[in-house]
Amino acid sequence: AGMNGTTISNFACVIFNVSFMNCTWDVGRTATEDTQYFLYWRSFKNENVTECQNYIKDTCGRHIGCRFQNVTIKDNSLYFLVNGSRSGQSIHISDYIIAEKLTPPLNVTVNCTEASGRCSIWWQPPRTSHVKNMSCFKYEIVIENK
Q1: What angle do CA 127, 131, 135 make, to 5 degrees?
Q2: 94 and 112 part of one domain
Q3: What pLDDT tens digit does each residue of the chain (146 aa) get?
Q4: Which residue range(s) make up the domain with 77?
Q5: pTM of the entire predicted model
Q6: Do residues 64 and 119 share a domain?
């Protein structure tokens, strides 16, 4: 454990608008200013790893995140590896979190029949970058009587 105390924490990724993803982390508690972190990722276990192309930096210039574009996640799996360059030790991350901020439902249609006093409301589900099964979505509808 040559990187004692420099291990990152709070690693999480958020997907915005289907194809942009930011992954961020906190630097280790005892990480010096010259500690540097590098993020590598791959979508399949046997694939080669790719390094982050667009790091987010803190005031010391340490990498504290990565911006991704054109993200497509197949089968919900992305593998991440972060290593630190102070003593070159790898810190593997397995407890990563990927959250997706969804766009609102599209083409909301309301159809009311006055005779029965009933209304039907339907919409298109949002596009997502990694959830393929549309039955995974649940919407709450709030009706206000103006």
Answers
A1: 90
A2: no
A3: 445 667 888 888 888 887 889 999 998 888 888 889 999 888 766 778 889 999 999 999 999 999 998 877 766 567 788 888 776 566 666 556 677 787 778 888 999 998 988 989 988 877 777 666 666 667 777 878 77
A4: 8-101
A5: 0.68
A6: no
